[in-house]
Amino acid sequence: MQINLHYSTGDVLEWTTWGGGGLGDPLTRPAAIVAKEVHRRLVTFAGAARNYGVVVRPSDFSVDENATMILRRKMGEERKGIEGGADMSIDRGGTISELVSRCEDDTGLKAPRPQWERNPYGPHVGLPYVKEWYERMRKEGVEMFDKA
Q1: pTM over 0.70
Q2: What is the mean pLDDT of the chain?
Q3: For the chain, which terminus, N or C, has the lower number of CB atoms within 10 Å?
Q4: In this structure, which long-range contacts are made by residues 69-76, counting pairs with CB atoms below 8 Å and at least 24 apart in sequence?
């Protein structure tokens, strides 16, 4: 599908899609939500296991709680053997605070505002894990990533 858009300076383009970066560690995403995404065909059975550590039963799209617990534990242990894997950090070229502070010098663009500084919207905002993530990020801020 091809879409041609015409916009002017100052226009705001918002593109809402399924998927994305998510909030926090994928292994902490509620398994029932992952199962719903499998049922809706947004995530495959294999993708649920590989990316979220969730085992979904093909017969009824329910979560195999025991198998999910075992898989998530195993995936968490495997991360510990990878440099930076236990905390899911990557080398971004400095701490997040350092990158934000030099963003304009490095790119010519002002640093983006963290998403938690704005009020969330959409159907997900009432979910407990989303509320908890926004509360934690508003309390700890960008500096939380500097520790990673």
Answers
A1: no
A2: 81
A3: N
A4: 72/27, 75/27, 76/27
